[in-house]
Amino acid sequence: MSDRLPENVTTNGLAGGSGLPPTEHNHPDAAIDAPPTVLVKSWKAPIAFGFFALGAIVLFIVFGRDGDSTFRLSTDSDLIQLPAVVLPTRATGIVLSIVLVVLAAISVWFVATDRKIRVWFMAVFAVVFLIAFLTWASAGQTIPLPGLLIGTVSLSVPLIFGALGGVISERVGVVNVAIEGQLLAGAFVSAVVASVTGNLFVGLLGAVIAGTLVSFVLAAFSIKYLVDQVIVGVVLNVLVTGLTSFLYSQVLTANPDLLNSPPRFDRLPIPLLSEIPIIGPTLFRQTIVVYLMYIAVAVVFYGLFKTKWGLRVRAVGEHPQAADTVGIKVNSTRFWNVLLAGAITGLGGAYFTLGSVGQFNKEMTAGAGYIALAAVIFGRWDPIRATLAALLFGFATNLQYVLGVIGSPVPSEFLLMLPYLITIFAVAGLVGRVRGPAAAGRPYVSA
Amino acid sequence: MKLELRGITKRFGALTANDHIDLTVEPGEIHALLGENGAGKSTLMNVLYGLYQADEGEIVLDEVVQHFAGPGDAMNAGIGMVHQHFMLIPVFTVAENVMLGHEQTGFAGQLDLVAARKVVREISNRFGFHVDPDALVGDLPVGVQQRVEIIKALSRDARVLVFDEPTAVLTPQETDELMAIMRQLKESGTSIVFITHKLREVREVADRITVIRLGKVVGEASPTATNAELASLMVGRAVELTVQKDPAKPGAAALVVDNLSVIDPRGQVVVRDVSFDVKAGEILAIAGVQGNGQTELTEALMGLQDRVTGEITLDGKTLRGLSVRKVLNSGVGFVPEDRKEDGLVGEFTIAENLMLDRADGSPFVKGGGLQLSFLNTFAEEKSKEFDVRSQGIQTEVGRLSGGNQQKVVLARELSRTLRLFVAAQPTRGIDVGSIEFVHKRIVATRDEGIPVIVVSTELDEVVALADRIAVMYRGGIVGIVPGDTPRDVLGLMMAGEVPAGVLPADPEGAAA
Amino acid sequence: MSDSPVTPGSQAPVTPASSAAASGSPASGSPASGPAVEPPSRWRKAFNEIIGGSVMISVLAVVLAIVAGGILIAVTDENVQKAAGYFFARPGDTFAEIWKSVSGAYVALFQGAVFNPKRPEFVDQIKPITETLTFATPLIAAGLGVGLAFRVGMFNIGGRGQMLIAAACAGWVGFTLHLPWGIHLVVAILAGVIGGGIWGGIAGLLKARTGAHEVIVTIMLNYVAFYLVSYLLRTPVLQAPGSNNPKSPPIDATAVLPDLLGPQFNLHLGFIIVIAATVFVWWLLNRSSLGFKFRAVGLNPNAARVAGIDVKNMYVYAMLISGALVGLAGVFQVLGTVTTGFSSGIDAGIGFDAITVALLGRSKPWGIFVAGILFGAFKAGGFAMQASQGIPIDIVLVVQSLIVLFIAAPPLVRAVFRLPDPANPKKPKAPKTPKPAVETREAVAAK
């Protein structure tokens, strides 16, 4: 490293002997400019790329499969019918593996020449890998691409709502492990309320209130009583699980017709947009909850980064004392925004009962809250990135179903494991540095 | 604006931090609030700024009694504060930091960054600050960050500006620039409260001086008072700044540091090409303004820094690349600069803290088990020897006063067989009695023939203890000079200059 | 004030001790008393703790949670609801029904957990208490693991994953290797403990090497373990031959933990092992060099590092031991509780229960022991309550999580019972030493 040090250092070393002549100039330029820096090279990304490229060679070439892979691009109800794409499995695997190796080599070159590896580069790598994988997995079979994507969006909706709640809560400085509990509470209350009233929107409102209530406990204990936020979150998840399961067994099963048979939201295709090939069926033939989700993502992103509210939220999460000294009430800001986070997450809970399943079941969220938490971290506390992460996790889950139908060569458990493994890699810093809001997790006490 | 504090009293439990303090700041006046660390200056200003609520007394602005429930109220009343630890959010831009708390918004609640940038530029130009509104605050040097703090206060139309120990992190040159800014502000009609414990600065810039001690106003002085008068007022008696010590009898060079460089995790070269040696039986003081690489240098000696180049040898054996454990085992005693954070485990008892860095083997550990009865005897003995005042050795260290905490650290480090003793900021934030004790023990250690390094940002301490002085600036050593070097020369060196005529001392000559 | 340059105000003579007090020290005001003062005796300390402090709060928290559980039971009871329908006509009926449902439930709980006088034989009468101890056995083991991690400043939420891996390892040895009596059991236990230790150690290693937060990693590892074990249960590695269910074959008799009190009781050797484990953890934390370093790292990692303690290694060791202890709980499940073959639900939620056990036991080994027995009693009694009163066992989760929430927030409990705050009147909160992780205005001012 020492050869990278600047040469004009003005050090007088006595032990070194005669010493350098003393510097005579009167006002060293020093006061303003920052100290010299040495670039730190990180080889993590190229290593990861190399690892995946190697995996591609092993899987798609060494264990390559023969036959043709068919991708269906349109559903039968589409106005514009696209022809199916047919790829020769082995040849495609070989070509794409070579592309991956080349990309990995380029990443090595990037790092060697002190260039940054951008997100788009990672995205290209990931997409190529994915196409190669799908081709390999569907040898001799047909993959319905629209179905795969529609299912992805469906499965991602609660994850995205949960992730948005997580982003807001953590940005304001309260670690939200209770997403699972907020989702479950939202699912339960919305099912009961919608059943009893027969009105879906009242059901949605119920979910919002339920999520807010769970958040209220989180906020009260962590902000007022200074209990460790992670502890409150974990315990709240247990509490909500116990409470909903108890009430389900004790009350709902006694009278399912009245209490647990809510109506379901119908799909509401948006004219014109829903006829765009592939994108239309995926994004614009969905229920109103999904459209609400689009709006929520946009509003949270805009709010967090472009408005006064967002500036204050982020200030409180990064440096609460600084916010305090400019007259922002730290704890009440935290309190109300944690409630807001719970309200948004509660909507995601409603999607389980009113959007997809149509009734409440014990522990029906099955860890979605923890995947949402993973999406928050993998998305680096950014609403858009967290949404993309949630979509990725939804995609992995849905892929497992689709491959299960066509007879997958990969055990479904490994695809289900994927979101969690990716998150471990992410927090271990293999996918770039992950840094959360500086003050998240730490209570703030004022005089 | 005229500011009056009348009979302000603030208690924390049994401790009265402010005891009926009266203070009047006339419009367009620089009023210095002088006092030792812990005299209650910061508490008073936090009351003024609405961060604390006073138990008694009132705050009066232009003859109107104020009631501040929080900093927001104080700011609206025209009080601004430049905090000692900047209240800036590192991941925000300058403009965002300045607008935070009184944001202007446009359509759909959108932040009006254009207006915020304009405000920053306008105030920057008025005072010649050269601050880029779109720079990330975390990337700016401390001097510039302080200007951002000033802009922040001025953008809220502050008529009374409180500077809380603003020079602690500045070089002498930056300090001079700050003084100029303060005068400029004063001329534009702003009243200034300047909190400090540095006499020179007070005399240079203040119109009036109020001295507080132990939470009480003990006197007022004009800037014409001498240093000695101010100092004795500040600490309550004539201070013996010099430490009684015999001339050093240095032996052979024990610690030799050669071309040492340290790179921090952000890739910045924080210590560069530093070379010096310390002889057996001498005290080498490392002077410099806070943040010029002293911390990293001592950490590198201790094996606490990861990216270190160059060579460190102690009695001929290399220390570089060794783990902290091995450095300690080679006989290095270390008093870290932040004792609460790095020196002690607050929830541990005195006894447990006394074995903290010896938890691996004899005499405190045998066969993987703790030797509790030995530890207790040892702790009783050391508490007595080092005059640790407590309810007993099972007292949690976090409940002791700063001075007694530091004695625990000293007791632990000095009860090992040492070949080198490194003390960083050994008297920071402790009472006068303990300061004397610590200084005596450091000199006694030297007199046992052990090489000693004392790192201090307090020039008084450096001059009192040092046999030789190395001055650090921006990660490098500007020069190594004899212990009797005049203060003004040291001050220049701390700004990175070696004044013509003062050649770096020859080691042999300095030791003599 | 006069015009002379210096006008000292009147002041008391300054002594070092009083200036120490004024320098903002935490020992504010307490005059320095010599070492002659006797340290309070052990019994005195214990007594104070019971009256003023944590033990009292713990007991009250349990009472409060049981009351809350009672309310939940009463509200959801059909007979109570019916009686409440004509409350204003005959309010007595409502109260009678409430009493009937709540007392019925808790009597059943007691009879299922401690002693059932209704049974004919003495052996049957005391069987409940042995059931309690049986349920407590894995809870204590896992609680010790979680508590140990707490003491080193880490949050092990990975109990589920560690238990699953441990169960799979111990189970595999239990039905695959056919070793002689004695040796087989020891090898099976060791396999499980090592498996759990490694799974926990991964989180420790990632934290030490990359700074990955153990909360996230352990949560994610739970799911990875779940899908991994689920997958193995579909392959010949763990699946019972000739079966289509994802379930393992039964454990060999030589690997089963022997019954302690004869075949009519379920209590097995695991209980003795767990007592030994408690003693071991107590010794480790309070009397060993490693434990000293663990505690130092847990309380102040910076000071520990400066004192030459290898903090990173401590994280790894602590998670290894923590995982091993949690793994022991998994071992008890397969070799003691469910010896007829296990599925991927073998952890039975104990990994999460362990967090509540450790919190209730305040991370102290014997505290955890007592807390484990209490929660074991809830479980044993809960099943009895479900069988005889038809009250879903999920109520136990509710009570358990409420206990932990209350314990974590002593001010709340004191407010409910209108107790004075023991900390406040006599010894004022030191203004400048807040909890280490708490950011305060005072902390800022003190800097």
TrEMBL record, chain A:
Superkingdom of source: Bacteria
InterPro entries hit by this protein: ABC_transp_permease
Topology of the protein relative to the lipid bilayer: Multi-pass membrane protein
Protein name: ABC transporter permease
Subcellular location: Cell membrane
Chain positions covered by the region annotation Disordered: 1-27
Residue spans crossing the bilayer: 45-64, 91-112, 119-139, 145-167, 174-194, 200-223, 230-251, 288-305, 335-352, 364-381, 388-408, 414-432
Keywords, alphabetical: Cell membrane, Membrane, Transmembrane, Transmembrane helix
From TrEMBL, chain B:
Key words of the record: ATP-binding, Nucleotide-binding
Gene3D superfamilies, per database record: P-loop containing nucleotide triphosphate hydrolases
GO MF: ATP binding
Record-linked InterPro entries: AAA+_ATPase (IPR003593), ABC_carbohydrate_import_ATPase (IPR050107), ABC_transporter-like_ATP-bd (IPR003439), ABC_transporter-like_CS (IPR017871), P-loop_NTPase (IPR027417)
Domain spans labelled ABC transporter: 3-239, 255-499
Keyword ATP-binding (UniProt): yes
Record keyword Acyltransferase present: no
Pfam (any one): ABC_tran
Stated name of the protein: ABC transporter ATP-binding protein
UniProtKB/TrEMBL annotation, chain C:
Region annotated Disordered, chain positions: 1-40, 421-447
Any Pfam family: BPD_transp_2
Membrane topology, record value: Multi-pass membrane protein
Keywords carried by this UniProt record: Cell membrane, Membrane, Transmembrane, Transmembrane helix
Biased composition annotated in UniProt, kind: Basic and acidic residues: 438-447
Biased composition (Low complexity): 12-40
Compositional bias segments (type: Polar residues): 1-10
Keyword DNA repair: no
Keyword Electron transport: no
Highest taxon in the source lineage: Bacteria
TM regions (residue ranges): 50-75, 132-150, 181-203, 215-233, 265-285, 315-335, 341-360, 367-385, 391-417
Localisation per UniProt entry: Cell membrane
Protein name: ABC transporter permease
